[in-house]
Amino acid sequence: MALELEILGIHAGYGAVRALQGVSMQVRDGETVALLGTNGNGKSTLMKCVMGNVRPTSGQILLKLDGVPHDLTRLSTEEIVGLGVALVPEGRRLFPRLTVEENLLLGAFRREARPHIAKNLELCYETFSVLKERRRQLAGSMSGGQQQMLAIARALMSSPKLLLVDEPSVGLSPLLVSNTVTMIKQLKEKHGLTVLMAEQNFHQAIRIADRGYLIVHGEIVFEGRTVEELEHNDMVKNYYLGTA
Amino acid sequence: MPHVAHPAFLVLGAYATYALVGLGMDPLLAGLLLMPVFFAFGIAVYQFYYLTFERRGTDLGVRGIAFFFGIAFIVQVGLILVFGVDQRMVEASYIGTSIEVFGDVRIPQRMIVAFGVALALTITLALYLSRTFTGRAIKAVAQDEGALRLMGADPVRIKRWAFGIATGTCALAGALLIIVGPVDPNLDRLYIGRTFCVVVLAGMGSMSGTLVAGLILGVAESLVLASVGTAWAPAVAFGILLAVLGVRPAGLFGR
Ligand SMILES: Nc1ncnc2c1ncn2[C@@H]1O[C@H](COP(=O)(O)OP(=O)(O)O)[C@@H](O)[C@H]1O
Ligand SMILES: [Mg+2]
Asked: Rounded CA gap, A87 and A173, in Å?
């Protein structure tokens, strides 16, 4: 199935706060695209716009599935999930007083995912063996790293075509960040997923990204068509790495 | 959001059972048949609440509770207008007889029936909540509505359905209530205290904890009833409630 996400000039905000100011970007089939930017520049807002949690005041978000465009700005979050878009949200947003397995099964709530539950569950447990060991444990009682794995696994339970990951590195130790990013890369290759990942951690993000965008104050200030272009860009160094 | 009209729906279930028994029906059968009717009623009440309060964001704090107090009051007054303030009870083959357990210990048959049906209802609910997609979503919606939406479920639909199920169980539970003993329209007040006590004692969202907490409260009330006197029985629930809140606010089985 051919998939393409096209974001066209979206503006969005919270009351007087203007969080996104004319953001345009594309994610094509099978790509891993990084959305780079430090804290408070609008990465999460963009993710929320794609998921229908925040409504852009103008602009379009088109998800093309086999050439059929769906305007996500007009659909509810449930409908967007129904199209095969899954978000691993900032802060993970697990159901802390449900078990690991109940969290995973909730990930498979959308109709299209239900026939594949057994297969997907096995795959999740194979990839994250600690989740299998702890499947009867309450999600809230696990460590940060384990919770991040669960959040990713829960998103995969919905058999997504497009996976959005919002800052998987937050709150994790450097080693866990590295492991998590490696895991996303493997999953992506195994499932032929298309991934859009928001990340502050530049070095981890470029390990798995094919290309990326730099967002500053709600505007895309640089588009790197390759990881090298990102690494060598002055603006990235300046705004982002502080090493120019 | 504590649904303070739930006990009023329970008493309504008891009176609806009473009305059907008056037509010659068995009280348990009446309770079962009333379940879908109460389910639909619950859906309607939630929808009204959603349209008038929740959707406008005016359900926060005391206003949401006020809505359900209002509903409880309407039910209570309605029952008084239709049935009067006198106590009502029902007849059935298993009411008024008792079974000898051993020696001269006898258990009234109506208690055994009520206990068995209540246990079956609780187990069915627990299975529904843990084994079905909607059931798990009901458990999840109380924890994080936004996250549930990301799973592709509409929280409002889930809450409406949950409210329907909760109200539906009031029909059968109400039948059990009037099988166990006489009811009057003001009985729900007693149950508001009991409900808070059981929920706090059990810890929110623990099904097995709820069962044990119910038993603890029941035994404690009976002991006080037998030793201190009838007048003090209603104080038991609040006594336990205060003690638990002071000592272990997460509840005995809170996690
Ligand atoms: N719920 C909110 N209400 C008001 N302002 C918000 C809210 N969420 C984010 N913002 C503001 O919007 C801007 C972008 O935030 P966000 O998208 O979370 O950035 P990032 O994910 O890149 O850290 C920031 O200025 C932030 O303070
Ligand atoms: Mg963010």
From this structure: 22
Is residue A44 a part of any domain in this protein?
yes
Cβ atoms < 10 Å from Cβ of B86 = 9
Whether A215 is covered by a domain: the verdict is: yes
pLDDT in tens, chain A (244 residues): 689 999 999 999 999 999 999 999 999 999 999 999 999 999 999 999 999 999 999 999 999 999 899 999 999 999 999 999 999 999 999 999 999 999 999 999 999 999 999 999 998 898 888 999 999 999 999 998 899 999 999 999 999 999 999 998 887 777 778 877 887 888 788 878 899 999 988 888 888 899 999 999 999 999 999 999 988 888 887 776 655 4
Distance (angstroms) between ligand 1 centre and the Cα of A20 equals 9
Ligand 1 atom nearest A90 alpha carbon:
21
Report how many domains make up chain A: 1
Q: A74 vs A15, A59, A62, CA distance in Å?
A: 20, 11, 10
Residue A199 lies in a domain: no
Q: Evaluate whether A165 touches A88 at the Cβ level (below 8 Å).
A: yes
Three-state secondary structure call for residue A28: strand
Closest CA to B92 of B190, B18, B7: B18
Say which CATH number the domain at A7 has.
3.40.50.300
The model scores a pTM over 0.80: yes
Q: Residue A215's domain spans which residues?
A: 1-82+208-244
Other Cβ atoms less than 10 A from the Cβ of B154: the count is 17
CB contact under 8 A, B152 and A95: no
CA distance A137 to chain B (A): 11
Kindly provide the ipTM of the predicted complex, given to two decimals: 0.93
Q: Is the CB of A14 under 6 A from ligand 1?
A: yes
| Closest chain A residue to B130, measured at CA | A102
